[in-house]
TrEMBL record:
It holds the Pfam family Phage_T4_gp19. This is Phage tail protein. Signal peptide: none annotated. It comes from the Bacteria. It comes from Marnyiella aurantia.
């Protein structure tokens, strides 16, 4: 049976804003903290390692700027007196038939950084904006059934 490779360019982001199209999503990472321990009575001159807490990377969302769409900026500005609007975010990778293949679910997210475009007078590139969010959990679901090439 041949392995079917999945393209990474066809995806949607459900983040609570109006637009779901993005140019790039990066930072879907998690790691287990390693805790080094050594018993005081141990004669071994090395440490034992045990798993600690899960750590999640911040996730960056980049999209083209569109006139009248301030959703990124509005979300980061919900911060007030130690609170901020938290949302769950879903990133769905789609196949060429627009069917969902993989779903990443980020729990209890809030924005930590907004970056507007770099403006260059002699460039024809589109203006983009980036929102970086932090979150408290990452779940991954494979949604594809039997794919046929």
């Amino acid at each position: 049976m041949a392995t079917i490779l999945i393209n990474r360019y066809h995806f949607l982001v459900d983040w609570g804003g109006i637009r779901t199209e993005f140019l790039e999503v990066s930072g879907l990472e998690m790691a287990i903290e390693v805790i080094a321990v050594r018993e005081g009575s141990s004669k071994v001159e090395s440490e034992n390692k045990i798993p600690g807490l899960l750590k999640f990377s911040d996730v960056s969302f980049t999209r083209a700027i569109q006139k009248g769409d301030n959703d990124f900026f509005n979300w980061i500005n919900t911060r007030s007196f130690g609170t901020v609007e938290r949302r769950d975010v879903r990133i769905t990778l789609l196949n060429e038939r627009h069917e969902p293949l993989i779903l990443w679910k980020l729990r209890n997210c809030f924005p930590v950084r907004y970056a507007g475009p770099t403006l260059i007078g002699n460039s024809s590139n589109i203006a983009t904006e980036t929102l970086v969010i932090t979150h408290e959990g990452l779940d991954i679901e494979s949604l594809a059934g039997n794919e046929k090439g």
